[in-house]
C-alpha cells in the first residue's frame, strides 16, 4: 500500500522475476542477455538504485522480499517465468524456481506458468499438470525464445492455438506475452505484434497482456488494442522512462490512454531490472506536462489507482482492502 | 579523377556514412553514435567499425546498416577498398563474414531468413514517412493552421528545413512525388488525403512518431551506458 497526499494506492506489481544469471548458469548468449538487462537497469534507474553487476546476476530471496514488500509498497507481485534454458542451462527464471518462493509467501505472490508450443503433444500434458499442480491463472509467453534450431514461434501457429485452447479449458485466463527482440525469421519485423491480434480474436474469453506495451512497436500495439477489448498493456520498460525521460513517458502513457482507456493498463516494475519503490513514488507524483495537457489530458488519482493495482486485481481476482477507493472498475471491465 | 588527401577522403567517407540510417529509428548512424571507428590510409583503404546499443539488437537492422555503410563508402570517389565490421553483437561473426564475402542476407543466415530485406525496409520507410508527416503538421498547427486547412496544402507551403527534408527523403524512398507543387499529405499509394480522413490518419501518425522518438531516445541512452560518452568517432 502506498499513501500520498491523503490518497491510498493498492499496488500490484504485474511483472517480477527471481532469476539466476550467475556465471556458472549461463553460456555465451546468456552472458549477452544478462548484460543487456543490466544495460536497461543501469540506463533507466536513478543512480542510487543501480546495483553492482554481481548482485544483478543473482540476488537473494531476502532482497526480493525486502525490495518489493518492505520498502517497495507492493501488495501483490505477479511472477512471470522466463525459462531461456538455451542461454541458462538450469533455467533463468522457471515456474518451479518461482514456486518455491511463492510457497513460502502465499499471500504475497501470484505464480504464473508458461508453455512452449514447440513441445508438442507431450508438452500439452506437462502444461496441464503444471497448471493443476500450482493452480495457475496466468502464464507468460516468450515467443522469441530459442529452442535448438528454432529461434522463436508465433501465437498464430496452429500448435499455439492448441495450447490456448488448453488454457481456456483449465481456466488460465491471463496470457502475458513478451514482445521483444525475436531472432527468427530474421528478415521480418522482429517485434511484430500482429500474432496477438490473431490470438485475441480467436480467444475473446482470454486476456492478453502485452508486456512492454509493444515497444518499440507502440503504434502497432495500440492499433490492435483499439480493436481487441481483451488486449492489455503491461508497463514494464515503459514506466521507468518516468525518471530520465519524463516527456517521452508522458507521450507513451498519453497514447495508451487515448487508444486503450485507463482500465487496460497495468503497472509492472520488471523487478529486478527496476525497483518498484522509486517507480511507484514517481508515478504517483507524475503529471502530464502542461504543454501536453491539451492533447493528453491529466492523470487523476483514480487513473493512477487503476494502473497501479486495481486493473490487475480485477484480472486476478485479488481482494482489495476496503480503505482503497475503487472507482467502478468492475463495471468498466 | 581528383585525388583526395587522406583527410579529405575521410571527410567524404563520413559524409557517405551520414546517409546511412538506422531503419527503425530513422536517424543517421553518424548522429546515433553507431560509428565507432572510421579510418583511411594513403592507398584509399577505408575501415569502418559500427557498434549498437545492445548485444541483442535486431540482426536484420544490424545487417541493413552494415551493408548500407559498405555500399555508401564504396561509392565514394578515391576509395579503393572498404572493410566494415560490426562490434559486440551476437551475430557479429555471421554479419561480418557475410559482408566481407558480399553474400546476401538470406545466404548469410542460411536457414533462418527466407528472403531478402526489401519488404522490411519498405515497412520502416512507411513508418518513417508517417512520423515525418506528423512532425510537419505539428509545426504547421503551432503556426496557426487549422486541421481542415492541411488537406489542401502543397509541399511548397511548408517552410524549408529539417522536417521538410525528412519528409521528402521518405517520399522519395517510397517512390512518391517530391516536386514543390505536389500535395503535402498523401497516403502510401500517393493518393492525396482528403479533409475527412485526415484527423484519423494524423492521429495514428502521431503514435508512430511517439514510438520512434521514444525508442531512439532509449537506444541512445543504452549506447551511452554501454560505451560511455567519449568513445565515438566524429
TrEMBL record, chain A:
SUPFAM superfamilies: Metallo-dependent hydrolases (SSF51556). It holds the Pfam family Amidohydro_2. One of its GO terms (molecular function) is hydrolase activity. Transmembrane segments: none annotated. InterPro entries: Amidohydro-rel, Metal_Hydrolase. Residues 12-318 form the Amidohydrolase-related domain. Gene3D superfamilies: Metal-dependent hydrolases (3.20.20.140). PANTHER family: BLR3681 PROTEIN. This is Amidohydrolase-related domain-containing protein. It comes from Haloechinothrix alba. The lineage of its organism: Bacteria, Bacillati, Actinomycetota, Actinomycetes, Pseudonocardiales.
UniProtKB/TrEMBL annotation, chain B:
It holds the Pfam family FeS_assembly_P. Transmembrane segments: none annotated. It comes from the Bacteria. Residues 11-84 form the MIP18 family-like domain. This is Metal-sulfur cluster biosynthetic enzyme. It comes from Haloechinothrix alba.
